[in-house]
Write a structure and sequence with these properties.
Layout (H helix, E strand, L loop, with lengths): L3 E8 L7 H8 L7 E6 L2 E8 L2 H25 L13
Helix pairs in contact: 1-2
């Protein structure tokens, strides 16, 4: 049973970064309790865990990975057409 949930919304408007690329870069570290959704310039990530401590650890890891994914996406620039996003909508 899930006892702890969080939703993280990152609006990349004006950043020049494609949120689908960021989502694809994050996807390999996902577990079944992590879900990404792209809506325009917004990357929304939902995380569910069985405890607040588990949620805190997962979000901490996510934020570190998000920073790396953002740097990767900035470097690939205008590359579009990521096709395998492991369930990212």
């Amino acid at each position: 049973m899930t006892e702890a949930r969080a939703t993280i919304r990152v609006d990349l408007d004006g950043s020049g970064v494609d949120p689908a690329i960021v989502a694809a870069a994050l996807a390999p570290d996902d577990t079944p309790e992590i879900e990404h959704r792209v809506d325009g310039t917004v990357l929304e990530t939902r995380v569910e865990r069985g405890s607040v401590g588990g949620l805190r650890s997962t979000i901490d890891d996510y934020v570190v990975n998000l920073g790396v994914a953002m740097r990767v996406a900035e470097r690939v620039g205008g590359v579009k057409g990521v096709t395998d996003m492991n369930g990212v909508e």
